[in-house]
Amino acid sequence: MANYINEKHRQIDFDPYTLPIIALPEVIATSFDPIGKTPIMIRIADKDKAFAKIKDPGQYQGILEINFNDINEEDDYWGLSKKESDEMMLFNKKHAEIIHDFVDQFDEISQIVVHCNAGVSRSSAVAMQLAEYTDDLETYAKLREIKRYLPNTRVLAIMRGEEF
Length: 164
Prior knowledge:
It is built from 7 helices and 4 strands, in the order αβαββααβααα. The protein is of the alpha/beta class. The protein has a 4-stranded parallel β-sheet.
């Protein structure tokens, strides 16, 4: 987390908190002050996990809460065990559709704040793909510069409409 929070270690020449689309860890997102008057938030948590309370939910024109686990079955050498399959939810096309439909319902969005537990893989994948989806290639390029982000390849591919 150091290279994200600690400005000395960011190794980027821009303030990531001011990007039109940003991925954050839950601990920061719950008290984050978004930019502009029309921000939205996408909250990601594991299957059946409760979301932490947001300090001021009224500052968002819309909040989407969606549950899926940070797993990628193709990267799992052994495959998912029955217990893992029963207890976890893989990201799927329906999740992507829900996220895109949520974003599409707003005429104006000043900032899209996406968070998951750690703010590393699920939220960064969603943020990067939403930058592509909204044709904001400058933000997409900047998101790719943030070394903290390790986008979940399954989430990114499925959100792009690719087979996985």
